[in-house]
Amino acid sequence: MRDITLLLLAAGCWIVAALLPLVPPRKEGRFSTVVGATGSLLAIFAAAHALLGGTPTHVDFSFWQGPVRLEMDALSAAFLLPLHLVAGLGIVYGLEYWPVHLAKGSGRSLRFFFGLLVTAMSLLFVTRNGLLFLVAWECMAISAFFLVSTEHLYPEVHRAGWVYLVCTHTGTLVLTASVILLAQRLGGFPWVPLPPGPIGRLDVWILVLSLLGFSFKAGLLPLHFWLPAAHAGAPSHVSAILSGVMLKTGIYGILRVSTLLPGPPGWLGGGLLLLGAGSAVYGVWNALAQRDYKRLLAYSSVEHLGIVAMGVGLGWVGRSSGDPLLTALGFGGAIFHIWNHAIFKTLLFFGSGALLHATGTRNMEALGGLAARMPRTALLMFPAVLAVTALPPFNGFLSEWFLYRGLFASLRGGDSWSAGVALLALVFTGGLAAVAFARFYGVIFLGEARSAAVDHAHDPSLLMLVPMGILAVLALALGLLALPLLAVLDRIVAVLAPGSATPLASLVGRDLRLLLPLEVGLLALGGALLAWLPRRAAQVETLPTWDCGYAAPTARMQYTGSSLTDGWSVLLPGVTQRVRSIRALFPRAHSFHSVVRDAVGDDLVTPWFGRLTARLLRYHRLQQGILSIYILYVLVALMAAFLWLLLRAKLPG
Amino acid sequence: MSHTLASTLMNLLLHTLAVLVLPPLIPGLIAKVKAWLAGRSGPPVLQLYYDLAKLARKQAVFSRTTSWVFLAGPVGTVAALLVASLLVPFGHTPAPVSFEGDVILFAYLLGLARFLTVLSALDTGSAFEGMGAAREVSFSALAEPALFFGFAALAKATGSLSLAPMLQAHGMGKVGHLSGPLILILAGWAIVYLAENARMPVDDPNTHLELTMIHEVMVLDHSGRPFALVLYGASLKLVVLGALLVDPLLPRLAQGWLNWLAFLAALGLLAVVVGVVESSTARFRMTKVPQFLLAGVLASAFAFLLLLV
User: Fold this and answer.
1) Is there a domain that residue B187 lies in?
2) What's the pTM value of the predicted model, to 2 decimals?
């Protein structure tokens, strides 16, 4: 069967999975899970087939009297693969995590919008028509809104949902303009790539506008401020699909639009490189300060999307300067990092869901010592933490290695200044991410329990553990067996930059053939050394931590997440408020508290919107709340438009 | 062909032998130099070998707070450093494994070692070890850019992204014998060397006061074989990072064995220099340490800028 047909079948499965919990024989959702997971399996099969050398397949039909083409090429497949991996595992995980038969029907609505989101994104990645793209985009945005505000009774979730809705629609507004301009350039809504040629001014406008619109979705600095609250407030398997896949629809959009035009100008590539670098550093900088572990993960997504954007920028620099090496390493690294991020971030969010299930709190300072109480979760989160910090031998390291190779190459040949800055940003990001995730893992899983929330914690059931296990294995497997992926990445790069990239296999194949055995050797060495160490069972007695001779250490004496990064707090933007000095002779009790703020969201955007709202309230008089008056407004506006058209036709010149 | 294969194998054997046997000698040398300068006779140079042999036979004690992550620290550190040592050329002998981009793997393996050490420190739930972990991560986040700026400068100058050609570019172009950028890079790396190995102006390996420690305080709870791995890993780090420092300064000699000899002599000399530095400076206050590390970052950043323009 053709790939695209298979994918449409999969989308159909997901629609059915979304609707099943709503129809009368309301079972607990096992059947709909099976249908959804089957759909995902079909889609993964189709995408893998398309990536492994299948030719692009398409179907044509008519939509609003316009021709529409749904086509699955390597680029679409590259995004469909992580989507259906995360969605398929997510719906299985959700069966235990957020049962369908929950009070007030939130389980059913969650299942419905989850299915709708997956269907909309599946369509988004294959449609080749501007209008249908916007429709799918809007469906995705709206279902994501309902998913984010699943727990809307909590005020912060309610607010996060609305902020997300406003942001996504502002983005859509910009995208609509860009799609209309694109339709002018292409001569219609169907997206047919233009032949290579000189880059016009209109092309630059289209690219800049779509970059702006898509950055809202991708959470690039400074348009990321909606993201942390929204991703932290959503149910964990939803956070996984939002962070792991939906953010990347922004990257997909930028890439797809750029393939339609003759090619991006070089300065835009350098600009995107720097923007990505800024996002990466800013994201990880904020992740360092978070006490809410899901917010920490959300900020880490800002970081990783920044890294992906750096890859895309590098690819554009390569494409415009005609450097096949940069093109291959930039685009290849970006796509590879998209896959890797989908895997380890989903694993991290699934794991944080297990934590939330077991302890009921998102505050990491209340946790601790969970490695003893949730040994399986702790074991499965360990590879995720190493992968997200890009440490070998896990998958995150390899994609960043691609990017490092590209940046060093650009340093030697291409745009050395932007590459130098981006290189520094990547190094710094790597160092800070290690701090942030050592803190994440150390404070949550290691040491002693910090509060009673941990007392009854236990591992979740297999329904939640098995999806996590699959992802953990994938994180290691992609890190060790990346060699066959090079040919696949080449096919995707060929879509992004037709005929102008060196095959990756000839570029890094030899190096990877030496690198990957070293990683296997690392694991083997670790295993051998572990075998040499004494078994714990041999020990005669258990003793407390030595703690420099202090015999009665308590859990409150441990370092907390805040104290671990306290040294950085001078540099973190506006994080802490505290009593600096005690002046009185007989000082009374003092206390201080620290709050975590987002420099862009809390200090710039919120006050600005406050002032804007105050100004706009002047026009509140126009809002009467009476329907007929609104209809009158529409009528007047229409009349005015017709009048203007009429006058313009009549008046000479 | 057979001759080159034999010499390659010989080299590999020597390299592995050097990595496995040599490291514990270096801390012994440093301690001896410090003792001499202080007018003491000091422990024997081979003291660390005796310690390791004793620790390997001793029973290990584990705190009841710890989990399996506690063992990941020592194991991961030694495994990562052993693999990293395969990428570094010792003097002008070829590195056992060398490929474009190995320098990134090298840096990230060091990162892996640090990450696992920090986790195993946090696993004890001790306030002291948490303090050590917090200091380690903060200072290493500054040491890492210094290391990378040096790599970037050398990569730009030599047109290669592999440790062996980068470090063995003796007399080549802009990073030839003791040119400005090279001096700056080595100055930056010397600071990194002292900081990463917990040496004197940054950290005092001999202090008895846990509050002032950085690295030592993270491994307070290790004992027996895990502690043997910690000590061996620390000495291995002295050799692996030491090779980065001495390689660019060594002249290329005709015979292979002469190159080996030169490298070993240079490493010994480095140990003596570290001993002298440790004897002649006091440990900085904790608040001064970031400034010291920042000087290292700036030195190698200037080297990078000099080569960029």
Assistant:
1) yes
2) 0.94
